[in-house]
């Protein structure tokens, strides 16, 4: 009797493990992505996934970092090339001009990132990320895109591309 109970337990254990493996194989897989952000009273920092490609089972990723200066309204960033461990692409944007912020006013910016697949334009490889910047006084949110350099050579800083914007409230 004892041996039969042990055999039944082993059968149910094997059936449970096999059922779990089958369910996990057919269950839809959702990729995980995360951006890191931090802020201080005068600036904010955010990381963005630039490229995430798997070719022949090898994952190829690239990441960028962007800093927003709340005092000057300048957004700057760079993408690090994992092959050489150096920043090869640099970006900038004058947010104060984009949002038409009065130089005497006290602007209130916020920065977030999202994922997007933009259609290719010429030779440009667009990042898988888009930057969203909001400004409280203007009541606007703008979306900025950027291309990246996959070469080992460092390129001159280029402006971020203003894709579009919308008003979330009336200006103050």
Polypeptide structure, described:
With 172 residues, the chain is α+β, with helices and mostly antiparallel strands. The chain has 2 domains: 1-28; 37-167, no CATH class. The chain is built from 2 helices and 12 strands. The strands form 3 sheets. A 6-stranded mixed beta sheet has the order 1-2-3-4-5-11. The radius of gyration is 24 Å and the shape is elongated. The mean pLDDT is 83.
Helix content range: 10-25%
| Strand count | 12
Summarize the biggest pleated sheet: 6 strands, mixed
Number of domain modules: 2
Q: Which helices and strands, and how do they pair?
A:
Elements lengths: L1 H25 L10 E3 L3 E13 L2 E12 L4 E8 L4 E9 H4 L10 E7 L9 E2 L2 E7 L4 E6 L1 E2 L9 E2 L1 E7 L5
Parallel strand pairs: 5-11
Antiparallel strand pairs: 1-2, 2-3, 3-4, 4-5, 6-8, 7-10, 8-9, 9-12
Explain briefly what this protein structure is.
A hairpin with a 2-residue loop joins strand 2 and strand 3.
Features of the shown structure:
six-stranded mixed sheet; single chain; 172 residues; alpha+beta; 2 domains; 2 helices; 17% helix
């Amino acid at each position: 009797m004892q041996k039969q109970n042990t055999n039944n337990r082993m059968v149910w254990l094997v059936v449970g493990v096999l059922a779990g493996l089958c369910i996990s194989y057919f269950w839809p897989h959702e990729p995980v992505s995360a951006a890191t952000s931090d802020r201080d009273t005068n600036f904010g920092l955010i990381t963005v996934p630039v490229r995430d490609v798997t070719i022949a089972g090898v994952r190829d990723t690239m990441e960028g970092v962007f800093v927003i200066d709340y005092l000057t309204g300048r957004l700057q960033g760079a993408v690090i090339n994992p092959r050489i461990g150096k920043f090869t692409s640099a970006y900038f944007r004058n947010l104060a001009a984009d949002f038409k912020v009065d130089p005497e006013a006290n602007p209130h910016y916020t920065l977030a990132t999202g994922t997007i697949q933009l259609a290719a334009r010429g030779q440009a490889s667009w990042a898988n990320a888009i930057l969203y910047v909001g400004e409280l006084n203007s009541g606007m949110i703008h979306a900025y895109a950027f291309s990246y350099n996959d070469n080992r050579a460092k390129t001159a800083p280029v402006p971020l591309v203003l894709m579009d914007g919308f008003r979330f409230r009336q200006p103050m």
